[in-house]
Specification:
single chain, alpha/beta, Quinone Oxidoreductase, Chain A, domain 1, Rossmann fold, 9 helices, 20 strands, about 25% helix, about 25% strand
């Protein structure tokens, strides 16, 4: 099959022929239909986060089941599915206490003594996040997919696989934003826009969108922002504090920078909670004023929106088809797999919400 193979940091990927193994007893072979290009892919491609090479990047995807292993009963060939990197075992402490997105059990991957899922000749090729969706096929554990209704468009379904679930989930699950609360979201890319949408669904009374790109701020209004703040024009924290008379109840950092994580904490009112969604580079330390903790302010992280994806994603599909989740505006470009490097470059400029690779 054809795949975009990541071999060296900051070096354009080439489309190569690689081999995909047959499904094991609890594995599912999926024909990829659509794959979004996410900042998480960029973090590994540009070396911000270390990764093993050669690797097939991509993790935000949707497709059709091609073949299933002997012990798989949840899906069958022909089913439409969304993939998710929150692959869960189902029986560890994290899974049994409802924190499936934190499951780290190795059994959902193949062992070192087994044939790799992807290979090229004698060399193993690692599928990123146990998915590797920048390829025509994905071979995954059965707990990496969720079955969805057939009338959901595949390009928009793919976005639910990561960015939408991460953004909306951070609001409704990680932070548990309640109706009437005030919310600020720093960063209006795909995840930030989804957090804004999630805040609107949760019933937030005021939603502040903070970014430096005017087009993204304008887009944020479509997703539910009641107020927009251009961070390139003055002190965004001071503006939020002034406009709210003391700060917001909840803030969300959706970029992955030390400075914006600190700003998210600073724009809280007493008793407020800041949630860091973005991937802050390893080694970066976030500095906070200790006196702020006397006001019962909190800061926390969020892993994939604290999702229960087999429950959440079908609901998000319904939200979209009901007109409550604004996925159409998230798709900036539809491209081919051969355009992968142009898609990565467009993401890095910050001008697009999502480029989606279409495989048909």
């Amino acid at each position: 099959m054809k795949a975009a193979v990541f071999r060296e940091v900051n070096v354009p990927m080439e489309i190569e022929d690689i081999q995909v193994s047959k499904p094991g007893p609890r594995e599912v072979l999926v024909r990829t239909k659509a794959a979004g290009i996410c900042h998480s892919d960029m973090h590994f491609w540009n070396g911000t986060y270390p990764g093993q090479v050669p690797m097939v990047l991509g993790h935000e995807s949707a497709g059709v089941v091609e073949e299933v292993g002997s012990d798989v009963h949840y899906v069958k060939p022909g089913d439409h599915v969304i993939t998710c990197l929150s692959v869960f075992c189902g029986h560890c402490e994290k899974c049994l206490t409802g924190h499936l997105s934190l499951c780290q059990e190795p059994e959902v991957n193949r062992g070192a003594d087994e044939e790799p899922r992807l290979s090229q000749g004698e060399q193993a090729v690692l599928p990123f996040a146990q998915l590797g969706s920048f390829a025509e096929m994905m071979l995954v554990h059965e707990h990496a997919v969720v079955k969805i209704r057939d009338d959901m468009p595949m390009d928009r379904a793919a976005l639910i696989g990561c960015g939408v679930t991460t953004g909306v989930g951070s609001v409704i699950h990680t932070a548990s934003v309640e109706p009437g609360a005030t919310v600020a979201v720093i960063g209006c890319g795909g995840i930030g826009l989804s957090a804004i949408n999630g805040a609107a669904i949760a019933g937030a009374s005021r939603i502040f969108a903070v970014d430096m790109v005017p087009s993204k701020l304008e887009l944020a209004r479509k997703f539910g922002a009641t107020d927009v703040i251009d961070a390139s024009d003055g002190d965004a924290v001071a503006k939020v504090v002034e406009m709210t008379g003391g700060g917001v109840h909840y803030s969300f950092e959706a970029i992955g920078l030390k400075a914006t994580a600190e700003q998210a904490f600073e724009m809280l009112r007493m008793g407020g909670t800041a949630t860091v969604i973005g991937m802050i580079p390893p080694g970066d330390m976030v500095s906070l004023h200790g006196v702020e903790f006397l006001y019962e302010k909190k800061i926390q992280g969020s892993m994939m929106g604290s999702n229960r994806f087999r429950v959440d994603m079908p609901r998000f599909v319904d939200f979209y088809l009901q007109g409550r989740l604004h996925l159409d505006d998230l798709v900036s470009n539809r491209i081919k797999l051969s355009d992968i490097n142009e898609g990565m470059a467009a993401l890095e400029t910050g001008e697009v919400a999502r480029s989606v690779i279409m495989f048909d």
